[in-house]
């Protein structure tokens, strides 16, 4: 696999290519699960044949949002909860870009929940990694939408009265065409799933369990996981919506009771991605829109005289 | 008040086809060589409710709706009747007649639909007595019956136009042409029959004892009839904008719709998304990926865009947002104009936040300043906002077709090519110094677009180093902040020195008094000044378009040249006057305000009166629904 370096020379790429120089060093706490996501992404990207210039990583705000600070691709570190709308537009503007969006559970399932539902519904061709540590990390340990019921924090001192959201089920209902859960404690599975998610044509949602040793020592993310595909106890067809839904329901029930199940939950290779749907109804140009601005021969039409109908 | 003009008002219920009928009639007048200006009044209601459109036409420039009107075509509100129950809601049916009479000028003409409005109704509102008092000429016509006979009831609008043409002694040619452009087959035939029969019947039935005639037009250059929303949308298209994201909100929806409908044919992309935060964030994302992009909204929706706006600024992602004002706060009056979001647009978003804001006052300015907003945004990598209002958005005026250059400008401003990126500065790890402050010119550090070779960088809303790493280093912070702040100064310099002024002046340069305004109040102010000067006053006017960076030099010169000045704007808290004083730091004792915020735009007569009370110091309160704010210290 080859790529171009900063000054346009061709050279072999490997995961180092996605690592910036000495600076900046991650500011994550020792033992933070976020390191696991960074690592699996660095491994997956060269594996799926992407060069750093072809990749745009878009992140939200939180410890998780710093992902692309430590990754040498084109990056956009946006605002809290808004990575998906930025990522969607970049993909529509230039479908050739490999777009990976990422952020925390507060970022993605809380403040950005509306965007999450709509991005899944539209099935934008991108990977969305949610660092699920069941806590607000960066703002110092408040209860998040995935914190279990009864979870105590400075903002829920008597224990949360809220049932945690079910990100996998929600994603399925909304329309994502690839849904998986993996965990930082299992780097091999994580890398595989991330690579698969990137290659998937459609909205690939990966709920990535990341431990937060600083604020959430009780979370299940440290517990050894069970791979649902490899265990005989959990047989189901990942291409079958109903079976996937049932498995997700079961999983989401037991997660907070102590059993951590990970793996692929739903894969729909047939559902067209949003760019395909949009092109089919005639609302997306054949060539990437962004390229036209660099193409001296591009025909810039008003296409017909707009004034005619007003004279 | 001039008699050389026609101000035709068509009134009826929302949903009764008032809009399309008036649009065509305005075009017919324009094609006959006249200048036209349309004003639309409608309630926030889908069907029924009193609505009207006014068309002012004259053989000279018309810049505002004028004062009152001289021809009423009252169609009746067909939706005031509940079709299921055949019941009437109060006297709404009569409203298109009764609600409109106050503004009808002496000697004016009334045509009403006697098929819908009965003689009893007419008596109930004393029409005959009032007509005699005001020398009105009343023509009851069975428009509905006529329409029914030849086609369908809805075609009574056409019958109304036929009667109008007959009473004003107009040629039917342009009206017929427009009808055949818009429809065909049986529908066209039926409409033409109705038009002719209404025309002939009127001529046969009535002797015209009134003097009103359609003025003779003398335009020779081809004209286009455009609304402010059209002008903004076409300005964006010609500026090379090919991406728009939005969420519907009146009145911004018009611009959004026009672009959405045109984009498929010209290879653009439009997205209707889940909310305004998303909309603005999409515009930022598309721009980051290398497309000229825009979004926009009205007050409440724009409030949601505050954060993405700041993100665009900090990441130096060019973007154009439009803000179409309506009366607020909150949902306010959705279909009524106001100029009360100025401070919102200038100051929203946290930090020492900077953006460019243009407030066009006319259709031509709306087109030009939208283009300018794109140019500036992409050259300087800064968000630019076009602020306008429901009035400018909906009013139609004719513009010389030659005014539009129709050249699309796809220039991405300060964006490097891959060849240029090869020469550009990189850090040790090979990252492009996209936010370099060492040799930035005018505050601008050239950018790269994702996908380009050798251009990798991180864009972030956090403070960042030259390659985009998050940084809280004090020296870096000051260097980056200063560089970003320099942009606005450089833009001001460019606007002052290299571009034509976007401010508009009226009246006599040696005048003693000034009237200063902004945005869509411009037309009414211009006309008021003309009238005042004709009547022996000494007034000059300035309409400011650049809200920020503020044209300090120009406005200072203007204010120094007059003894006193009245600031005219459609809001209750004198927001623009506040901006003047903030930017100029003086003139407090020279400035008074004339404010209007009742949901209707200024009419020239109100400004004339405001001037007389305010500056000519007539000792009385103004009679119109306006408010006067004295000078500081008064
Ligand atoms: C609009 C807005 N609200 C609040 C914040 C403060 N904030 C920053 S990160 C964060 C939550 C982080 O939690 P999560 O998304 O789960 O990410 P983590 O830090 O755990 O990776 C919050 C509330 C903000 N930056 N912007
Ligand atoms: S606070 Fe938690 S999530 Fe944030 S870096 Fe530390 S361990 Fe990771």
UniProtKB/TrEMBL annotation, chain A:
- Gene Ontology biological process terms from the UniProt entry: cellular respiration; organic acid metabolic process; sulfur compound biosynthetic process
**GO function terms (MF aspect):** oxidoreductase activity, acting on the aldehyde or oxo group of donors, iron-sulfur protein as acceptor; thiamine pyrophosphate binding
Q: Which cofactor does it need?
A: [4Fe-4S] cluster
UniProt-annotated stretches for the region Disordered: 140-166
Protein name listed in UniProt: 2-ketoglutarate ferredoxin oxidoreductase subunit beta
KW Transmembrane (keyword) present: no
* Source organism of the structure: Natrinema saccharevitans
The family database entries (Pfam families) matched by this protein are listed as: TPP_enzyme_C (PF02775)
**SUPFAM superfamilies according to UniProt:** Thiamin diphosphate-binding fold (THDP-binding)
Q: Which UniProt keywords apply?
A: Oxidoreductase
Stretches assigned to the Thiamine pyrophosphate enzyme TPP-binding domain? 61-208
Tell me the superkingdom of the source. Answer: Archaea
From TrEMBL, chain B:
Stored InterPro entries: 2-oxoacid/accept_OxRdtase_asu, PFOR_II, Pyruvate:ferred/Flavod_OxRd, Pyrv/ketoisovalerate_OxRed_cat, Pyrv_Fd/Flavodoxin_OxRdtase_N, Pyrv_flavodox_OxRed_cen, THDP-binding, Transketo_C/PFOR_II
> What is its EC class?
oxidoreductase
Q: Which residues form the Pyruvate flavodoxin/ferredoxin oxidoreductase pyrimidine binding domain?
A: 235-481
Q: Which UniProt keywords apply?
A: Coiled coil, Oxidoreductase
Any one Gene Ontology molecular-function term assigned to this protein's record: 2-oxoglutarate synthase activity
The residues covered by the Pyruvate/ketoisovalerate oxidoreductase catalytic domain are: 15-200
Q: Output the Pfam families linked to this UniProt entry.
A: PFOR_II, POR, POR_N
Has keyword Phosphoprotein?
no
List each coiled-coil range.
478-505
- CDD domains registered for this protein in UniProt: TPP_PYR_PFOR_IOR-alpha_like
Q: Which reaction does it catalyse?
A: 2 oxidized [2Fe-2S]-[ferredoxin] + 2-oxoglutarate + CoA = succinyl-CoA + 2 reduced [2Fe-2S]-[ferredoxin] + CO2 + H(+)
Q: Does the keyword Oxidoreductase apply?
A: yes
Q: State the Gene Ontology BP annotations.
A: organic acid metabolic process; response to oxidative stress; sulfur compound biosynthetic process
Ranges for the Pyruvate:ferredoxin oxidoreductase core domain?
511-586
EC code: 1.2.7.3
SUPFAM superfamilies assigned to the protein according to its UniProt record, in alphabetical order: Pyruvate-ferredoxin oxidoreductase, PFOR, domain III, Thiamin diphosphate-binding fold (THDP-binding), TK C-terminal domain-like
Q: Which PANTHER family match?
A: 2-OXOGLUTARATE OXIDOREDUCTASE SUBUNIT KORA (PTHR32154:SF20), PYRUVATE-FLAVODOXIN OXIDOREDUCTASE-RELATED (PTHR32154)
On subunit structure and binding partners, the annotation says: Heterotetramer of the KorA, KorB, KorC and KorD subunits.
Q: What is this protein called?
A: 2-oxoglutarate synthase subunit KorA
Species the sequence originates in: Natrinema saccharevitans
């Amino acid at each position: 696999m080859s790529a171009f370096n900063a000054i346009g020379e061709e050279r072999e790429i490997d995961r180092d290519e996605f690592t910036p120089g000495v600076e900046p060093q991650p500011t994550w706490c020792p033992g933070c699960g976020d390191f696991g996501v960074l690592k699996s992404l660095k491994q997956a990207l060269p594996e799926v044949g992407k060069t750093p210039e072809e990749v745009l990583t878009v992140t939200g705000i939180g410890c998780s949002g710093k992902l692309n600070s430590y990754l040498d691709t084109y990056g956009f570190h946006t605002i809290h909860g808004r990575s998906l709308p930025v990522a969607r537009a970049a993909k529509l503007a230039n479908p050739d870009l490999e777009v990976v969006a990422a952020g925390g559970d507060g970022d993605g399932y809380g403040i950005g929940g509306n965007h999450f539902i709509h991005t899944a519904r539209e099935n934008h061709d991108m990977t969305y990694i949610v660092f699920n540590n069941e806590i607000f990390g960066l703002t110092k340990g408040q209860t998040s939408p995935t914190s279990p019921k009864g979870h105590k924090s400075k903002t829920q001192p008597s224990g949360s009265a809220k049932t945690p959201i079910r990100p996998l089920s929600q994603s399925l209902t909304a329309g994502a065409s690839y849904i998986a859960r993996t965990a930082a404690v299992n780097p091999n599975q994580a890398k595989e799933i991330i690579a698969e998610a990137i290659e998937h044509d459609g909205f690939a949602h990966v709920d990535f369990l990341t431990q937060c040793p600083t604020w959430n020592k009780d979370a299940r993310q440290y517990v050894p996981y069970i791979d649902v595909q490899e265990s005989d106890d959990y047989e189901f067809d990942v291409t079958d919506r109903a079976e996937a839904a049932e498995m997700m329901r079961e999983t989401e029930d037991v997660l907070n009771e102590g059993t951590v199940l990970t793996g692929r939950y739903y894969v729909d290779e047939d559902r067209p991605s949003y760019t395909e749907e949009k092109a089919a109804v005639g609302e997306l140009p054949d060539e990437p829109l962004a390229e036209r601005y660099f193409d001296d021969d591009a025909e810039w039409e008003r296409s017909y005289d707009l004034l005619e109908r007003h004279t | 008040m001039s008699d050389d003009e026609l101000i035709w008002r068509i009134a009826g219920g929302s949903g009764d086809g008032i809009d399309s009928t008036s649009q065509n009639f305005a075009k017919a007048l324009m094609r006959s060589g006249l200048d036209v200006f349309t004003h639309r009044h409608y309630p926030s209601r889908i069907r029924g409710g009193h609505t009207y459109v006014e068309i002012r036409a004259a053989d000279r420039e018309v810049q505002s709706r004028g004062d009152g009107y001289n021809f009423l075509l009252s169609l009746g509100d067909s939706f005031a009747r509940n079709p299921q129950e055949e019941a009437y809601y109060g006297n709404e049916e009569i409203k298109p007649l009764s609600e409109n009479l106050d503004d009808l000028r002496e000697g004016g003409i009334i045509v009403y639909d006697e098929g819908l409005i009965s003689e009893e109704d007419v008596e109930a509102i004393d029409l005959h007595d009032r007509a005699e008092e005001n020398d009105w000429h009343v023509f009851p016509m069975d428009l509905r019956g006529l329409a029914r006979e030849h086609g369908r009831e809805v075609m009574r609008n056409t019958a109304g136009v036929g009667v109008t043409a007959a009473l004003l002694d107009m040629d039917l040619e342009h009206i017929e042409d427009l009808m055949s452009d818009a429809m065909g087959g049986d529908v066209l035939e039926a409409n033409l029959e109705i038009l002719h029969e209404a025309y002939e019947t009127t001529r046969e039935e009535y002797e015209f004892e009134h003097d009103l005639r359609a003025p003779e037009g003398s335009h020779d250059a081809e004209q286009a009839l455009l609304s402010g929303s059209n002008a903004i949308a076409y300005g964006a298209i010609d500026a090379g904008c090919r991406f728009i994201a939005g969420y519907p909100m009146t009145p911004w929806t018009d611009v959004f719709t026009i672009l959405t409908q045109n984009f498929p044919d010209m290879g653009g992309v439009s997205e209707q998304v889940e909310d305004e935060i998303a909309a603005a964030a999409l515009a930022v994302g598309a721009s980051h990926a290398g497309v000229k992009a825009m979004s926009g909204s009205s007050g409440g929706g724009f409030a949601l865009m505050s954060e993405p706006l700041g993100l665009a600024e900090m990441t130096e992602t060019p973007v154009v947002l439009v803000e179409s004002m309506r009366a607020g706060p909150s949902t306010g009056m959705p279909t009524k104009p106001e100029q009360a979001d100025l401070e919102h647009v200038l100051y929203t978003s946290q930090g020492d936040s900077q953006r460019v804001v243009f407030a066009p006052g006319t259709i031509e300015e709306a087109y030009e300043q939208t283009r300018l907003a794109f140019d500036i945004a992409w050259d300087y990598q800064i968000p630019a906002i076009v602020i306008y209002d429901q009035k400018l958005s909906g009013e139609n005026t004719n513009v010389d077709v030659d005014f539009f250059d129709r050249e699309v400008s796809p220039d991405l401003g300060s964006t490097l090519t891959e060849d240029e990126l090869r020469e550009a500065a990189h850090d040790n790890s090979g990252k492009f110094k996209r936010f370099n402050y060492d040799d930035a010119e005018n505050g601008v550090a050239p950018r790269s677009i994702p996908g380009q070779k050798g251009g990798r960088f991180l864009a972030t809303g956090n403070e960042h180093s030259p390659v985009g790493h998050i940084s809280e280093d004090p020296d870096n912070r000051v260097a980056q902040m200063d560089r970003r702040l320099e942009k606005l100064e450089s833009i001001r310099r460019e606007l002052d020195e290299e571009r034509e002024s976007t401010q508009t002046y009226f009246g006599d340069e040696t005048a003693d008094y000034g009237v200063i305004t902004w945005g869509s109040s411009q037309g009414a102010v211009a006309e008021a000044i003309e009238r005042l000067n004709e009547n022996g006053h000494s007034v000059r006017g300035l309409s400011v378009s650049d809200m920020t960076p503020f044209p300090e030099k120009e406005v200072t010169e203007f204010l120094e040249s007059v003894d006193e000045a009245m600031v005219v704007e459609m809001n209750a808290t004198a927001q623009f006057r506040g901006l003047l004083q903030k930017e100029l730091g003086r003139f407090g004792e020279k400035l008074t305000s004339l404010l209007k915020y009742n949901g209707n735009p200024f009419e020239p007569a109100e400004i004339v009166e405001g001037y007389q009370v305010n500056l000519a110091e007539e000792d009385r309160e103004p009679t119109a629904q306006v408010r006067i704010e004295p000078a500081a210290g008064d």
